[in-house]
Design a protein that fits this description.
Oligomer: single chain
Largest sheet: 22 strands, antiparallel, barrel
Strand content: over 45%
Structural class: mainly beta
Distance between the termini: 30 Å
Number of strands: 47
Radius of gyration: 28 Å
């Protein structure tokens, strides 16, 4: 039987949920060693022992957080020393007889903690988001971790709810994607045909945030504009790691704004069933959810299976005051019936060879309504989305802590979209305006990586990772009724290298330099359609004293047009379907017809330069307290955007670059004939009837203006700000407490829509990120009782959607969650939990804005129209 793999996980600095601390030498249980440890946090003492005494210590950081360890002086065996440090706590200490100590709660069955390696010799190593080297945290880079306990205490039932509560993530807005995005004024409102939800770190757009599952890329959603996180069941997630820094040097393109890595559950013993039912106290929406998890561990591996079913009703615009002016029936949130399966398996095939397999499948049926503001047309929108991700990996241990891994990933998302048009008054079908759309996104990748210690410095072992990969991406969209086919594909070949250099560590620490680490990384990507690019990253972490870490990082990033609508439109040019709208005339008197152009101008890749500097402070005098501060600066050039739709664009000087005036309608049509590949079709949406609008039956014959809504490369976007975090946990008598504070402050987002246009600061304007977003949390636990409270704050700003700018009040919501363990002697009540959660406890309504999508009156970037939602839950471990 193989020995436990030796690893060093310094991810305590990154607040990881599961940590393994180790060095590369074996040790004896019976040896008595000299200890002289100060009174400090238990986590700090465990780390000091692991680094000095050459062993692995496995624990869940949420279990030891906030626990103070006493001073320890004298001669003890290492196990006895750790036992003394944990005396009087809820923790137990066990030893596998070789080189692993496990610290875990005495009642591990309650939460399914990590298993004892004495029962299973398969101990997987931890890889932190932001690095390819196992057992280390990325030097200089800030990592936010949402572990399974934080997820449970939040009271949220879906992955999108959880991520939207993160201050660093902008809910929707001009470049985001949410299920209610149809009612936003953002450029992706019409593109998000699947009503999915993406992550939008820093407000740079969902396409600028790379979404991973278990460190691997997955197929994009909704024409390649974002990755739909609503297809990931929250019940299957072990933790979420957010790297709010550029990471193209580690992961390749798309990681401009940062990386969100969903780590799914892998190690689980037994079975657990969960049921939840929730409803909004204001009429409109309810949902219920069933989840079952089963897992098993054996001597050389483990396997886990999760099935999750969710049924959410439709919420109509007529059910909320801020959307009552939207023509009905129109959905805020569509009905959603979704089932998801997750499988994860690990098996040691031989002493040095192991295999890993991960499979996720989601099937979602979404049904919504859309009624246009003018005319007689309404439509039902039944959509079906199927996504499968399958990954297989092999790892071979070469010896001397080196290993080589091979990885293969297949990911596909199939989408069936229907637009069933009817007369809004009579319900009669409108076959001319109805259509079916088939869409597919495929992604295949394979890679090889070699990692291990290069050589040893006085500060520790220098870690090296080398690798290469190849990725293929395909996009296909077909609308049979219009005889329209759109397709795009590309391949990307990559090579990367990464070095982790511990210059100063425990053994050579000195006054003023207790720890000094550096990370160096570079990645070369060769695109089949956009050439090649090389992106470096450098990070440094320095601890002048044990309780303080100073860090900084610099990197460049690169993003080619996504293999979807961006790339396909860039290849095809202007869409031959021309929409004619009614715009305010240039003199401000009356209206004129304007043709809105869709498709794309020729696109070039986006590029950015990212810089961060920050600190983490853990005062020795206050055990369990951690304070973090990070300043970031991103300079973004050639950002791909779609200009905002604005019926007043002919009067707006900032949008004149997208307006073209022709001498006559004939001149305009002649120009379009030259620009468009294929016959041009006109679609009149200017007035109350789709058979003929404000300007007669053939408005193209009187139209002299075009307005660009094509994908373009914007001039630049410069964004800067800082994040402030605080985490404090402690025990008092039989009570456990934990307090958290997470604030994101944006100083400016200087954006220029096109070269030569002046840059505008978008912070604190409608549809854009706010200067302050804050989430404060408090948690208490005592015996069978568990309660949590969270306050979410969005700062006041300016409503720029109307004719006159107006102030918008701040938006504050409160979330509460309570759990009780029945747990008496009766077998049926063992490990049985009841829960109650209330999202938006005070039923705070979104602030009113003058104008948003479909004539609604709330800003989807910074508020939700859902209202108070109450959810009851029951869970049982078997």
């Amino acid at each position: 039987m193989g020995q436990p793999r030796r690893s060093v996980c310094l991810a305590v600095r990154a607040q990881l949920a599961a940590c393994v601390l180790a060095t590369s030498l074996a040790w004896g249980q019976t040896s008595r060693l000299e200890f002289d440890l100060p009174a400090q946090s238990l986590e700090a003492s465990l780390r000091a022992i692991a680094e000095r005494d050459n062993l692995q210590i496995v624990y869940v950081s949420a279990d030891v957080a906030g626990i103070a360890a006493p001073a320890l002086k004298g001669q003890f065996t290492t196990v006895d020393a750790i036992t003394k440090l944990t005396e009087g706590t809820r923790l137990s200490v066990s030893f596998d007889g070789k080189a692993t100590v496990v610290v875990k709660p005495k009642e591990t069955s309650r939460e399914g903690a990590l298993r004892d390696p004495a029962q299973s010799l398969y101990v997987d190593e931890v890889v932190v988001t932001g690095t390819n080297i196992k057992g280390v945290a990325p030097a200089g880079s800030p990592v936010i971790v949402i572990d399974k306990e934080t997820i449970r205490r939040s009271g949220y039932s879906t992955t999108e709810q959880l991520l939207q509560s993160l201050p660093q993530n902008v809910r929707s807005g001009s470049e985001g994607a949410t299920a209610d995005g149809e009612l936003s004024a953002g450029s992706l409102a019409g593109v998000n045909s699947t009503k999915g939800t993406g992550v939008n770190l820093r407000g740079l757009g969902s396409v600028a945030t790379l979404t991973l599952i278990n460190g691997r890329r997955i197929a994009a959603s909704s024409s390649g504009t974002f990755t739909d996180i609503s297809l990931i069941p929250l019940s299957a997630i072990e933790r979420i790691e957010i790297l709010s820094d550029g990471a193209s040097a580690i992961y390749g393109a798309d990681a401009v704004g940062g990386v969100v890595n969903f780590i799914l559950k892998q190690d689980f013993e037994g079975a657990e069933s969960q049921a939840r039912y929730g409803f909004t106290t204001e009429d409109g929406l309810d949902e219920w959810q069933l989840t079952h998890t089963v897992g098993s561990n054996w001597g050389s591996g483990n396997a886990l299976f999760v099935i999750d079913y969710k049924n959410q009703s439709e919420l109509l615009a007529a059910d909320r005051a801020v959307t009552s002016t939207v023509r009905n029936p129109t959905s805020i949130f569509p009905e959603n019936k979704q089932i998801a399966f997750v499988f994860s398996g690990r098996q040691r095939l031989a002493e040095k060879l192991s295999a890993q397999a991960d499979v996720q499948f989601s099937h979602s049926e979404r049904f919504g309504h859309l009624t246009f503001s003018g005319g007689t047309l309404t439509a039902a929108q039944p959509n079906t989305i199927d996504r499968i991700n399958a990954a297989l990996g092999l790892t071979y241990e070469l010896g001397r802590d080196w290993e080589v891994s091979l990885d293969g990933v297949v990911s596909r998302e199939d989408i069936d979209l229907r637009f069933d048009a009817r007369n809004v008054a009579t319900g009669a079908p409108n076959a001319a305006q109805s259509y079916v759309q088939d869409q597919r996104q495929d992604q295949w990748s394979s890679g090889i990586k070699v990692t291990g210690p290069l050589f040893k410095l006085p500060g520790g072992s220098v870690g090296l990772a080398l690798g290469a990969s190849k990725r293929s991406e395909d996009y296909f969209r077909k609308v049979p009724s219009q005889n329209y086919v759109e397709a795009a594909d590309r391949t990307v070949e990559s090579m990367f290298a990464e070095l982790h250099v511990p210059l100063v560590g425990h053994d050579n620490a000195m006054t003023g330099i207790r720890r000094l680490e550096m990370s160096l990384a570079a990645r070369y990507d060769d695109y089949s359609d956009f050439g090649d690019t090389t992106n470096p990253k450098i990070g440094i972490s320095w601890s002048p004293i044990d309780s303080l870490e100073l860090r900084s990082s610099y990197s460049t990033s690169f993003r080619a047009p996504s293999a979807g609508r961006e790339l396909a439109d860039s290849n095809e040019g202007i869409d031959p379907l021309m929409f004619i709208y009614s715009f305010t005339a240039p003199d401000g008197v009356g209206y004129v017809p304007v043709i809105q152009l869709f498709g794309s101008s020729p696109l070039v890749p986006e590029e950015s330069k990212n810089w961060t500097v920050g600190l983490t402070f853990r005062p020795e005098s206050v055990a369990g307290l951690e304070i973090g501060l990070t300043y970031f600066d991103i300079k973004y050039t050639d950002r791909i955007i779609a200009p905002p739709f604005d019926s007043g664009a002919l009067l707006d000087p900032t949008l004149q670059a997208f307006v073209t005036e022709y001498a006559s309608a004939a001149a305009l049509q002649a120009a379009l004939a030259q620009l468009v590949n294929g016959p041009v079709s006109y679609y009149d949406v200017s007035g109350p009837s789709y058979a003929g609008g404000f300007f007669g039956p053939n408005p193209e014959n009187s139209t002299r203006y075009t307005y660009e809504s094509r994908w373009i490369n914007a001039g630049k976007v410069d964004i800067s700000g800082f994040d402030l975090t605080l985490d404090y946990g402690f025990e008092w008598r039989d009570n456990q407490f934990r307090f958290g504070f997470n604030a994101s402050h944006l100083q400016e987002i200087m954006s220029s829509f096109a070269p030569g246009l002046p840059a505008l600061d978008l912070v604190d304007t409608t549809g854009n990120p706010l200067d302050w977003r804050i989430r404060t949390t408090a948690w208490w636990s005592r015996g069978k009782y568990d309660a949590a409270l969270a306050v979410n704050y969005a700062d006041s700003y300016v409503d720029t959607s109307g004719a006159i700018d107006a102030p918008i009040r701040s938006y504050v919501t409160v979330d509460a969650n309570f759990r009780y363990e029945l747990g008496n002697a009766a077998e049926a009540n063992k490990n049985l939990f009841l829960s109650l959660s209330v999202i938006n406890l005070l039923d705070e309504q979104p602030p009113y804005v003058a104008a948003s999508g479909r004539n609604s009156h709330y800003d989807g970037a910074n508020a939700s129209p859902l209202g108070r939602m109450v959810t009851f839950g029951v869970s049982k471990r078997w």
